[in-house]
Amino acid sequence: MSAKKPNLSAQILIGLFAGVGCGLFFGDFCGPFDIVGDAFIGLLQMTVLPYIVLTLLVNIGRLSMDRGRRLIAAGLVILALLIAIGITAVAIAPLALPERETASFFSTSMVEPPPEFDLVGLYIPTNPFASLADNIVPAVVLFCIMVGLGLARLEGTERLLDDLDVMASALNRVNTMVVKMTPMGVFAIAAATAGTMTMEEVGRLQAYLILYSAMVLVLTFWVVPSLVEACTPFRAKDVLRIPKATMLTIFATGKIIVVLPQLIEDVKKLFREADLGSEEVDSTTEVLMPLAYPFPNLGTVAIMIFVPFAGWYLGSGLEGGDWLILLGAGTLSSFVAPVVGIPFLMSLVQIPSDMFQLFVISTVYTDRIRVVLGAMHLFALTAIVTAVLTGSFKIKKARLIRAGVVTGVLAALFVVGIRLYLGQSFRDAYTADQALVKMHMMKGTAETKAYLGTLPSPLVPDPEQSRLHQVRERGVLRVGFLQDSLPFAFVNSEGQAVGFDLEMADNLAADLGVALDVIRLDRKGAFKRLGDGTCDLIMSGLVLTSSKPLLASFSRPYMNQTLAFLVKDNRQRDFATHQLVQGIQNLKIGLVPELADWEDRISSYVPDAEIVELTSPRGFLRGEHEELDALLYVAEAGSAWTLLYPAFSVAIPKPMVVQVPMAYALPSGEQHFRAYLDAWVEMRRRDGTIDRLFEHWILGRGTERSTPRWSVIRDVLGWVE
Q: What is the largest CA-CA distance in the chain?
């Protein structure tokens, strides 16, 4: 006897596990499978939008006005109920996140304006053909609704609607043929994903992945099926069983729309198996699900949990007002794709947009379970509303109460369990400070000697020669740097003098063809060391202020820094806007020597503020000045300090962002040297050197050394290097 062929669900599971196994075995060699996976998804997408257009036109064109009003009214009520469930889950889930200590490098998003998205353009098809070409589903659906309503009011359209119905059936048949290739497509997608996603990426996101997975599990496999069971004739297990193959396909592809026709057929099957099938059920289902698709679903609402996670990840949790903004704006932004809505929500609650990179990484997994929850949402919404319209809707109080009690117990267990697990996992897990103090030069080229204790003997300058000529003649460029100049010049954990400006000094020495001496200077009297020959330049993150040109000559600015405040984590939001800062009573602000010229400006900005002069930010960050509310500093350097002192954060008052220039100091009167230095800075700006060093030292990119993706073929068998 021949073996029984596995059903489609089993074949998809086989393809999924085989793909994961292939990815783990061959690792990043499975990357090219992405092409096969993309081709499969493209084939699935090929017929879906035309199918939606034709189905909506046919069914709305045949819809009576009375039935249409009932459908819309019932649909909106059930949609609101499901969205409310999702919002409740988003509000409860962050309770599972334990307290943790964290900080991050500077992010350019701190000074960027919030992103915008065109909600009107998303739903109003000013050019329906452009909306079709760009796959803007909400606008296409609205266009079809309007045309369908127009057809419903005309006589003699039955033949046209019959022809469109035939075409829709043909497209559905094509889609069914493509679905038969799902096991192969799933294999390719799973192999590429398992082979390229690193464990480091998973580790950084484990709290979010665990939290979101728990939400999806409870909502998909308990809450939504129980809701359907409590108000329709269907059993929860049937709600899970019938669309099983479709859900697996959706999980593999990460898209609902590609199998929307199959999802519609699954709802029809649910009614047929309960002996409730009819033409009215079929037509209602075919209208309702495409209509519901562009609206928010539980998957896109629940994904908002990334925003409070991002705040927790950065050490600045959301407060009461932030939650109102998030849940209110989140409901509206869930109309758009998460890749658009999440950055918008992050900007509203002042979370740096660089965190969005983590969200993008997570979508490899979360997109797949998000769309499974979204598909269950559509399935349940369509089933319940169809039951309302066909007279089979009935609330069963006992089952509803049981579902509520069990849901509460499950939520409590997940919150407590996840909090305990994450609390243990993140205990003593803070390592961002090590990422800073272990940084090295990207490319040291000049022969370098460091003077970190005593100063070298001064080299008496020759007034008859330019300092540049003397440097080249002696074969050594002497560059001074100041203590506490993170991340522009500092001593790393291995005792090496490193930083943005010291790497620039290394580049300068290499271009001059000389060796490099780096000399640590005391802040007091540092500029005098230029004149006595102790050093030729000071390259140490110097902010150019009005008084500094009286002490030395300066190059043209090579970078701007952003004026900001260093504050304790729990005070960051008090300094979020200029208006909030001006409203703080008895404000006390610390001021370091680099920004001493700003004392008068601060006094005019906040007349009642008390200014306290400090010698370094270190004392404030160590808690030696508890009386101070904030320290005026610059955001780029301040972010590096928060890595060492994670209880503090950088606050940049909005909307007006103030920037201050940075320059290199050289001896007064050295016009030749200054002209060369200005030209050299401009060359390094144009060839991308400054941008590369900015990304490394200021943004912290590349501080984690990457290793090849783990795989059996490389790390177990040793067949490849």
A: 105
640: nearest Cα among 566, 708, 579, 707: 566
Helix axes 260-273, 356-390, angle to 10 degrees: 40
pLDDT of residue 464: 83
Two tokens at 153?
């009011």
Radius of gyration (C-alpha) of the chain in whole angstroms: 32
Predicted TM-score (pTM) of this structure: 0.67
pLDDT value of residue 1 = 44
pLDDT attached to residue 679: 95
DSSP tag of 654: B
User: DSSP letters of 79-118?
Assistant: HHHHHHHHHHHHHHGGGGPPP--------GGGSSPPP---
The Cβ of residue 127 has, within 10 Å, a number of other Cβ atoms equal to 12
Residue 518 near residue 573, CB atoms below 8 Å:
no
Packed helices 338-348 and 306-314: angle between N→C axes, nearest 10 degrees: 50
**Region of residue 439 (phi > 0: left; psi between -120 and 50: alpha; otherwise: beta):** beta
Q: Among residues 375, 133, 52, 118, which one has the least CA distance to residue 243?
A: 375
| Distance separating alpha carbons of residues 138 and 157, to the nearest angstrom | 25
Angle 137-152/48-61 helices, nearest 10 degrees?
30
- Distance, in Å, from the CA atom of 531 to the CA atom of 608, rounded to the nearest integer, reads 40
Residues of the chain with pLDDT under 50: 1-2
Residue 197 and residue 34: Cα distance in Å, rounded?
A: 13
How distant, in Å, are the alpha carbons of 49, 153, 521 from that of 146?
A: 17, 11, 74
Structure tokens at 366: 């979360």
Residue-range domains of the chain with CATH: 8-99+120-197+204-313+355-425 (1.10.3860.10), 441-557+668-693 (3.40.190.10), 560-662 (3.40.190.10)
Phi, psi of 553 (to 5 degrees): -90, 155
Give the contacts of 499 (CB within 8 A, at least 6 positions apart): 481, 485, 486, 487, 488, 489, 490, 541, 697
> What is the Cα–Cα distance from 230 to 269, expressed in whole angstroms?
19
Please tell me the predicted confidence (pLDDT) of residue 3. 58
Picking from 252, 229, 667, 692, the residue whose alpha carbon sits closest to that of residue 504 is: 692
Question: Cα dihedral angle (617, 618, 621, 627), rounded to 10 degrees?
Answer: -70
Contact in structure between 137 and 378 (CB atoms under 8 Å): no
User: What is the structure's pLDDT at 497?
Assistant: 92
- The answer to whether the CB of 386 falls within 8 A of the CB of 281 is yes
Q: Distance (Å, rounded) from C-alpha 564 to C-alpha 634?
A: 5
